[in-house]
Amino acid sequence: MSTGSDPYRDIRDAVRTLCAQFPPEYHRKTDAEHTYPEAFVEALTKAGWLAAMIPQDFGGSGLGLTEATVVMEEINRSGGNSGACHGQMYNVSTLMRHGSPAQKEQYLPKIASGEWRLQSMGVTEPTAGTDTTKIKTTAVKKADRYIVNGQKVWISRVQHSDWMILLARTTPIEQVRKKSDGMSIFMVDLRQAKQSGLTVRPIPNMVNHETNELFFENMEIPAENLIGEEGKGFRYILDGLNAERTLIAAECIGDGYWFIDRVSDYAKNRIVFGRPIGQNQGVQFPIAESYIEIEAANLMRWKACSLLDAGQPCGGEANMAKYLAAKASWEAANACIQFHGGFGFAHEYDVERKFRETRLYQVAPISTNLILAYVAEHMLGLPRSF
Length: 386
Known about the structure:
Layout: H1 9-19, H2 24-33, H3 38-46, H4 65-77, H5 87-98, H6 101-113, E1 120-122, E2 138-142, E3 145-156, E4 163-169, E5 183-189, H7 190-193, E6 198-202, E7 211-222, E8 226-227, H8 233-269, E9 271-272, E10 275-276, H9 281-309, H10 315-340, H11 351-359, H12 368-379
Parallel strand pairs: 1-4
Antiparallel strand pairs: 2-3, 3-7, 4-5, 5-8, 6-7, 9-10
């Protein structure tokens, strides 16, 4: 849709070519059967796209978050769902920024080659939600290991990942100066953990998104799997969350363009009362408004990317990009399903599937209300509301 030169045209063309090997019927089938798009993710891995942000010295492409968002955008714009694989992008970002040289040497080459997947991040808990400082999962150091007990919820891609980044309390909250202190992050070998203290319980949900509830009972993690300094995990995880929100923004933009392309084409060709429905302003205006909002969200996405790639603070921009893009894609989804009429609810048109998929981002990975609260407090200086 956008006009002008595109510095990422080569990436877009290559990702679109790969996605074309997985037509709508493929995604429709995995959605209907609630199965993981294994072949699709494997193709992305073999082509190197999920190693985009890994430095070339470790076998990756050495690209930035900006290029990674283009990959995610194109997957969604092509009719796929990046939710099956986007975790590796932001999890790798956390590992690269805060992992030791030995950890990078250990993990990154095998992640880049596809031998290992790092698709999961264990943060959210049922009693804490987005109030991350209130998590109750503990990691107690004993000799050369940490013993983990607790529970996590809405942890995605655990069943299709080899490793997970886990956030746990290593110092009780009542013993720290700031409530954001005393948390640490670890690399968890999921294959081993499932045999020694980790129980995974799938959560059926309205989209084909593999997500789970996790229970830890005296699960052991080698001390060398601690990332960075003990007690600084909350700060480390924020870098990954900013990358996550910016990547999600790009995915929503891809969804938005998919909806606009689909409904515009339909409105031009659907004849009712002797004229195309797209000739009516009541149809034109919601589509045009959605397109304007997607284009505006795209600008904030590029701003967030440039800041993160430059190593600059970008919490506000990442949150605003996610908010604007999720809102724009949802409005485009509503217009698309509305003007398709009954056909919008038919599986064969794919509108209802994409409608469900993009609705998720009003809630996750952070709700729109919490983004508004963040902007009010941290960017406008208003009193904290909670």
